[in-house]
C-alpha cells in the first residue's frame, strides 16, 4: 500500500502525468480548434448548397406563377378580343385544355362578384366574391393581381388565385377571370420535395405578412405564423436572401436558409437541423477522440520510459547513499564526471561531505586539545592511557606514566599575574615536548599539572634517565615578560611491566610518587613501580 502511494509521489509519475496532460491539452486544443474550423466551413458549405437549391426551387415557382399569369392573360385577352358574353365563357374555358393542366380551377365572375363560369362544374354555385380583397384590387388596378392565400369559396380548399379583368369593347370591366392554385397539392410540390432537408428538417413558404403558403404540417397552411422577435419566421422574413442560426420551439438548433421569390411577395425557407447537417462530423469527432486517446496513451508510455531513463543517475546517487550508509562505499563515489545537473548535484554533495568531514576532524581535535598549550587535554589522555597500557601489555614492554606539577606556580600567578602564569605554562609545555620522544604522549590535565605517557621503554632504568632529562630541560630560566625567572617542577613517575595494571593504579602510583617529591622539597622526581616493587628512587 505504501509502495503504491509512494508511486504517486514519485518524480517519474509526476513527469509522466505532466506529459499526458500536456499531450491531452494540446490534442484537445488542436483537435477542438480544427473541428470548430471544419464545422464552420461545413456549415458554410451546407448553407450555400441549400441556398442554391432553394434558388433553383424559387426560380421554378416564379416561372410556374408567371406561366399561369401569362396563360390566364392570354385566355382573358381572347375572351376580350372575341367580345364573348359572360354566358359564353363557360364553354370557352372548357375548350382550353391547358387550363385544366395548369390551374386547380378557373372561374369567371361578373362585375358584382357573382360566379358566372366554373371550369370544373357547370352547375354554378351561388357564390359571390365581391368582398374579397383580390376582387376589389383587380377592379381598382384594372389589371390582374395575385391574392393572399385564402380558402376557396367554391372548393373550400386553401388556394392562391390569379386574376385578370374581363373587358367590354370600351375597356370597361365586365367581370374577372380567376385562376386558382391549390396549396395542399401545389403544382411545384415535386420541386419542393426534391430539396434536401435533413432528417428533421422542413421547408416552408410564407408570405411577407407571415401567412403560411406551404408547410409540412398541412393544418398550418393559411395560418398566421409567429413572426415575433427572435422567432424562426422573423429570421425567414429578413429582406436579404441568406442563412441564419435559429432554434426550434423544442430547442433544436437549426440552420435557416431563406430566399425571396420574384413574382410574389413570398419567401421560401428551409429549416435544417444542425445535428443532421453535421452528422458526418460526428464520426470525424469520434475518430479524432480515439486518435487523441491513442496518442495520449503512447505519449504517456513514451514519457514514462524516457523519464525512467533520464532519472537513472538519480537512482544511482540514491544507491551510493545507501552503500555509504551500509559501509559498502566511501564518499569518493560522489566525485563523478558528469556535465549535467546530476553531475553538479553529485559533486556538490561530495564537496559538502568533504567539508563536513574536515569540520568533524577539526572538532575532534579541538575536543582533544588543550587550548592554551596545544597539548592533548585530559579528555584525550583519559581515553589514551588505557589503550597505551593495553598496547604495552600485549608487547610485553615496560610502560610509564609521569605526573608533573610546576613548583610554586600559585606564587607566579599571584606575583606576576595570570597572563604571566599562562606564559610559564606554554613554555613549560614546549620544553616537555622537546625533552621526550615523538612516541611519548604529553598532555595537560588541569592548571599546572601535566602528564607524560612513555611507551616502548627498553627497560625500567630508562625512566631514571628521562626524569633527569626533564628536570634539566626546566633548568634554563623562563623569560616572563622579558624577565628571567627560575621555574622548577616535581615529577611523580609510575612504571609497570605487569599486563594487568589499569589506569587508576597507574595514576594513583604516579600521584603518590609526586606527593613524595613535593614532601621532599620539590624540583625532583620519584619512580614508583606498580605491581612488583615500591618506590625505586627519589632524588
Ligand atoms: N595562569 C594560570 N594559572 C592557573 C591555570 N589553571 C590553574 N591555575 C592556577 O595554578 C595554581 C595552582 O597552584 P597549586 O599547584 O595548587 O599550588 P602551587 O603554588 O603550584 O604549589 P605546589 O604545587 O605545592 O608547588 C592556582 O593558583 C590556580 O589558580 C591556568 O590555566 N593559568
Question: What does this molecule look like?
Answer:
This protein is α+β, with helices and mostly antiparallel strands. It has a domain at 369-538: Reverse transcriptase/Diguanylate cyclase domain (Alpha-Beta Plaits, 2-Layer Sandwich). Helices cover 49% and strands 20% of the residues. It has helices at residues 2-9, 11-82, 86-95, 97-102, 133-141, 189-193, 232-236, 274-277, 279-310, 312-325, 341-368, 378-395, 409-416, 418-435, 462-473, 503-519; strands spanning 105-110, 115-118, 150-151, 158-167, 173-182, 202-207, 212-214, 242-247, 253-260, 266-273, 399-406, 441-446, 449-454, 478-480, 483-485, 489-496, 525-530, 535-538. It has a six-stranded mixed β-sheet, sandwiched between helices. Helix 13 (409-416) crosses helix 14. It is rod-shaped. The protein starts with a helix and ends with a strand. The relative contact order is 0.07. Guanosine-5'-triphosphate binds next to strand 11, helix 13 and helix 14.
Amino acid at each position: 500500500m505504501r509502495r503504491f502511494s509512494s508511486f504517486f509521489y514519485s518524480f517519474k509519475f509526476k513527469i509522466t502525468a505532466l506529459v499526458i496532460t500536456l499531450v491531452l491539452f494540446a490534442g484537445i486544443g488542436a483537435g477542438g480548434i480544427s473541428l470548430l474550423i471544419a464545422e464552420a466551413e461545413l456549415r458554410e458549405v451546407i448553407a450555400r448548397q441549400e441556398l442554391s437549391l432553394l434558388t433553383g426551387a424559387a426560380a421554378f415557382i416564379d416561372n410556374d406563377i408567371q406561366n399561369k399569369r401569362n396563360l390566364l392573360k392570354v385566355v382573358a385577352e381572347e375572351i376580350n378580343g372575341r367580345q364573348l358574353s359572360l354566358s359564353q365563357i363557360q364553354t370557352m374555358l372548357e375548350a382550353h385544355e391547358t387550363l385544366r393542366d395548369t390551374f386547380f380551377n378557373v372561374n369567371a365572375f361578373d362585375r358584382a362578384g357573382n360566379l358566372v363560369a366554373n371550369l370544373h362544374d357547370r352547375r354554378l354555385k351561388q357564390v359571390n366574391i365581391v368582398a374579397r380583397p383580390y376582387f376589389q384590387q383587380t377592379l381598382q388596378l384594372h389589371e390582374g393581381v395575385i391574392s393572399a392565400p385564402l380558402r376557396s369559396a367554391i372548393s373550400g380548399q386553401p388556394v392562391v388565385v390569379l386574376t385578370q379583368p374581363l373587358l367590354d369593347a370600351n375597356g370597361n370591366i365586365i367581370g374577372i377571370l380567376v385562376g386558382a392554385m391549390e396549396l395542399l397539392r401545389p403544382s411545384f410540390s415535386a420541386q419542393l420535395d426534391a430539396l434536401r432537408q435533413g432528417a428533421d428538417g422542413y421547408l416552408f413558404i410564407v408570405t411577407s405578412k407571415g401567412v403560411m403558403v406551404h408547410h409540412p404540417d398541412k393544418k398550418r397552411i393559411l395560418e398566421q405564423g409567429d413572426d415575433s422577435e427572435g422567432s424562426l419566421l422573423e429570421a425567414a422574413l429578413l429582406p436579404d436572401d441568406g442563412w441564419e442560426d435559429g432554434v426550434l420551439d423544442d430547442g433544436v438548433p437549426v440552420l435557416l436558409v431563406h430566399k425571396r421569390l420574384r413574382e410574389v411577395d413570398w419567401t421560401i425557407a428551409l429549416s435544417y437541423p444542425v445535428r443532421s447537417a453535421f452528422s458526418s462530423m460526428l464520426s470525424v469527432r469520434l475518430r479524432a477522440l480515439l486518435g487523441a486517446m491513442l496518442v495520449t496513451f503512447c505519449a504517456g508510455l513514451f514519457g514514462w520510459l524516457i523519464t525512467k531513463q533520464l532519472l537513472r543517475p538519480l537512482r544511482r546517487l540514491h544507491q551510493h547513499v545507501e552503500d555509504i550508509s551500509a559501509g559498502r562505499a566511501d564518499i569518493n563515489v560522489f566525485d563523478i564526471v558528469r556535465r549535467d545537473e546530476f553531475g553538479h548535484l553529485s559533486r556538490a554533495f561530495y564537496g559538502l561531505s568533504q567539508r563536513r568531514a574536515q569540520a568533524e576532524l577539526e572538532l575532534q581535535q579541538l575536543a582533544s586539545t588543550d587550548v592554551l598549550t596545544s597539548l592533548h587535554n585530559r579528555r584525550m589522555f583519559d581515553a589514551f592511557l588505557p589503550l597505551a597500557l593495553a598496547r604495552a601489555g600485549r608487547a610485553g614492554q615496560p610502560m610509564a606514566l609521569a605526573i608533573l606539577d610546576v613548583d610554586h606556580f600559585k606564587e607566579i600567578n599571584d606575583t606576576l599575574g595570570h597572563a604571566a602564569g599562562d606564559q610559564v605554562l606554554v613554555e613549560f609545555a614546549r620544553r616537555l615536548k622537546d625533552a621526550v620522544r615523538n612516541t611519548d604522549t604529553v598532555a595537560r590535565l588541569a592548571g599546572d599539572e601535566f602528564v607524560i605517557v612513555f611507551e616502548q621503554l627498553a627497560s625500567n632504568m630508562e625512566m631514571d634517565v628521562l626524569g633527569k632529562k626533564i628536570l634539566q630541560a626546566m633548568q634554563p630560566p623562563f623569560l616572563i615578560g622579558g624577565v628571567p625567572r627560575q621555574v622548577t617542577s616535581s615529577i611523580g613517575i609510575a612504571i609497570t611491566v605487569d599486563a594487568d595494571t589499569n589506569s587508576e593504579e597507574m595514576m594513583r602510583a604516579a600521584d603518590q610518587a609526586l606527593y613524595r617529591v613535593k614532601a621532599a622539597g620539590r624540583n625532583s622526581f620519584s619512580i614508583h613501580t606498580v605491581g612488583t616493587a615500591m618506590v625505586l628512587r627519589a632524588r
